């Protein structure tokens, strides 16, 4: 291909991304979700500033703020809400809930996003290799994904984190364990199936006849077509990764205490849901909102990436039809 | 290597005691009140339901590892002596059961003689003889019936090699039965605590003619007020009914008010506590022998007067502590250990353990009960919330003016003992004093293995200890007796203390048969060891348990810390 044509393709790509963005902006739900997500990220990034603003830190114990004789339930109403502790204090320790939620957002978001990136990269690579490679590669990867899908994730993750040296940074370990074990098998299968059907399409055959290598075909012809299903799948995986991180924290193999994470807070909170409902509601609400936001964004992204939906969106009336379809889902 | 087994088993016992002898408790804290919310005098009749987590998997008296004969097993098996079924400190006493007294000791406490009461019978009406008790003990030496406490093997002459009555029909010469009512034990060393050991189920009579070996557990012959009529699902569901051959006249300890006891296990903590608090149907006459109330449940019950009146409080002799490895840096320096002791904020730690209703701050290694020889002392007084300034100063004197980086090992089990919550509270208080604390959380099996291995023992870790009977000996000796260091097995002397002064004093006290006199010396020994800061006592746990609304006559002794199922009435 000449340089000219390459240039043209690149320009097309850029304008494609712009189009997708424009289509996303046109959807109010996506816009709202993006704004909320932005706030959550800001909440996580600004944790030290927010802590300083409130005048608290995530690890200081406040023995005087809990009723020791009553199992350590926070004194005062709504879990010990006060001018010093905006969202109350943790039962048993008296640590500030607001600051712990801020810092907890960092763990949850970083681990979930990191794990999703790992899942997408590994899953897509495995899927395309299986579909384009020879029979041996396909069968090896096929068995591997079977194992990954059938693996009892939590049991295996707990075992893995138990054998890894204690000095290994926990967040990285969590990203790798969740990223490589949770959902990769499913994603690889999806990509393989999609690739196999795409492979038969004329434009891919044309590219192959034109002498394109497998790598080139994968990159140029298949990846753009795979983007929509992969992104949709990733949007499902992301909230599930957040939950997995929470689950691992629940089992005591998440981030190390006293580093707060939403999962850890929720796991303590499960026993406290009657005596101190605020302590359950707050991390649960944040977890719910984060999951919802990612799901809405993922869905919007899928629609925006879908050429058929996109053509409808470009025409004003059909755009509304597209939205109606979404609300039906 | 009996020594290895010995120490390892005690630790298991500590937790088993809580499980097996466990029971619901009722009545205001610390008052030794034997009444509960249900009004009126206890009467016979009805069915008592027991809701438990752990199935009673083992019901062979040879294999049971109990403190004071256990709770449910204690309804079926009578033993030479037993724990006094009384509330509070009175309940830490050992009293006669099948025997007429708690044993006559020779001068050096090496020979113990017991005489059986008159007219004792099994459930089938045949008489109980001293030979049956000897046989019951011999059975516990059979390898296929292992599981009981290791003391008999260690203490009885020839016990270390005896293989049980199936292989060695001749029996154990160190147990003599000169007549049908007399039994004499010959020990290889002085053991003033022998009457306490004689409360365990290995001292229950087993009629040789009815012994079916490993199958005996399916239908053990009862000597107590109840017999097993059903045992389903490997101890998941047990039904006990009255043994009409048992007579209250020969048994001053057990009451046996209910006609039937129905034990249901395999339930979760939440289910048990929810069923007890709701108390619908048979659950109104229910108790639990193994499930405590957690801090959140306590907080919730606090607002409900009716429920709060049904919560029983018990104290089982137990200590949760920080253990050092004084053989490794930086804790080989007593000043560093003292700095840790001064820095600990026990208020935070107690809160992490469930608050002041579930844990009491500890400065002594011995539990805060007279029977252990409790002598209040605080070698490094730092107040309820610790003294970080003093700790900093001690660190400076030790040559660490800029603080010190240390690692605290804990388990990831959510048990309010060695759990991450406790570790975080310890970490928070140490960091105030200039320590930089790294937490190393291990899965609970890996944790147990690591902390009890001399080679791999961490420098600093969370530990806990309870004794097999309420006496200073089984509390101090396994932890501080230099001869109990196990180099290649499960070691409990984690301070690796081998001080001839301490060892000799342990031997000397073991010779004393007067419990009170011995207790005083155990207390003094505890203080002497405590001053070396080999451990930092953190707290003594308190048990809170719920009973059904129709349950009467709740008795909680300090021996078990939990309700005694033999005293409960449901009518």
Automatic annotation (TrEMBL), chain A:
- Species lineage: Bacteria, Bacillati, Actinomycetota, Actinomycetes, Kitasatosporales
Q: What membrane topology does the annotation report for this chain?
A: Multi-pass membrane protein
- Domain of life, per lineage: Bacteria
Domain ABC transmembrane type-1 stretches: 105-298
Return the CDD domains for the record: TM_PBP2 (cd06261)
Q: Where are the transmembrane segments?
A: 30-53, 107-132, 144-166, 172-191, 222-242, 278-298
Under which name does UniProt file this protein? ABC transporter permease
Species in which this protein is naturally found: Streptomyces orinoci (Streptoverticillium orinoci)
- Subcellular location field: Cell membrane
This protein's UniProt keywords:
Cell membrane, Membrane, Transmembrane, Transmembrane helix, Transport
Q: Which family does it belong to?
A: Belongs to the binding-protein-dependent transport system permease family.
Gene3D superfamilies of this UniProt entry? MetI-like
Which segment of the chain is annotated as a signal peptide?
Answer: none
TrEMBL record, chain B:
**Identification of the protein by name:** ABC transporter substrate-binding protein
KW ATP-binding (keyword) present: no
PROSITE patterns in the record: PROKAR_LIPOPROTEIN
User: Pfam families this protein is in?
Assistant: SBP_bac_5
Question: Matching PANTHER family, A to Z?
Answer: ABC TRANSPORTER SUBSTRATE-BINDING PROTEIN, PERIPLASMIC BINDING COMPONENT OF ABC TRANSPORTER
Give the signal sequence positions.
Answer: 1-25
Highest classification ranks of the organism: Bacteria, Bacillati, Actinomycetota, Actinomycetes, Kitasatosporales
Residues annotated as domain Solute-binding protein family: 93-483
Q: Which residues cross the membrane?
A: none
SUPFAM superfamilies noted in UniProt: Periplasmic binding protein-like II
Which stretches of sequence are listed as region Disordered? 29-48
Could you tell me the keywords of this UniProt record? Answer: Signal
Q: Does the keyword Disulfide bond apply?
A: no
